[in-house]
Amino acid sequence: MSRMQTSAPARHPDQTGEDGPEGRWTTYPGVPVDTRRQLLAKLAWTSIWALYLAYPVQDLTTGQHTPAASAAGAVALAVFLACYLSLIVIRNHPGFRQAKRYLPLAAMALIAVTTSYTLGEAWLTLFTYTSVCAAVILPGRLGLVGVLATTGVFAVVGLTSRSDTETLVSIGLPCLMAGLAMLAMQRLVATMRELREARAAVAHLAASEERLRLARDLHDLLGHSLSLIAIKGELTGRLMDAGKAEAARAQVADIEQVARQSLADVRSAVSGFRRPTLPVELAAARTALAASQIELDADPRLAEDRPGLGSEESGVLAWALREAVTNVVRHGAGATRCAVHLDETWEEDGRYAVLEVVDNGAGPGKSAAGNGLSGLGERLAQVGGRLETAAANRGKGFRLRALVPLRPGPSGE
Asked: Which parts of the sequence are annotated with region: Disordered (predicted)?
């Protein structure tokens, strides 16, 4: 099930091996850290913001403090940075109790207050880090309280230490705004997590509903047929005991006919169960693409009944959606967005429904289509449709179009 590939292999977070859960470095907002590599990557990104500690470092190197004060300031700054980075580890480690998560935050606040009073206004910058960490560590509305409290303490310390107004404004505004921005980011991350869980639940419910439909169909089909076979079997036994061979033979023929019809009904029900549907495949696509950190832009009409689209043609389009999404996940190197749209078009021989799936990955390579696309083309040909594949806009990405004929009339029956 491969598509035309480029020379570079696809790299997605859900794959095993070098890019799998044990080897990938990439981590995303709202996604738990699973490996040491991801934790190191997160620490590296977080350490970039430590560049703003250049003001306290510059204050220590100017020589305006005694050697003892400079040494104490360096130790305090190192402890502050260690607490700042340790919060990343603690937050991503479920083994730490909630109370222990507050200890580094309290230490950061204490160091910020002490150094601002003893070493000067350059150390007021530490309050910005404390505000951000309070927004991240404190749960719920306590995060907002923590940000406002940190900003309030900063204002008190700045005013009582007689810092100039320009310094108070230039540090106070980032202290407040960075904390509020981090609160908004936390809310966004929580919403993303809830959306992933909701998508997984929708896919699970869709599959459960299909199983219940199959169970109802089998109960209705087999209940009636097996009851009829049992009754005719008893009647056949009585006729044989009475020596009425011709009548018994007729009942046996009826039993054979009922059994054959039951077998055909069961095969039809099972094939209907095995045939994918567009709503189910759309829910599965959301889950698969979300796990690969690919944004899905889906046409809401995919979940609606389309006039003229028969069940067989709809099933083939569902297969096309499944194959296209699988190709994006497995072979769409660098893809961050996948668009799925369902539309209609007029051809010379009639009206067609068109399912189009486009990603913004590396695009098709020079190799031939794999078994997955070949099989999909055969499925479409069986219902009178066709498959079209090509590079997307300006050669970037991959475009798959599946066309199936629409039946005349107001419904697809």
From this structure: 1-29
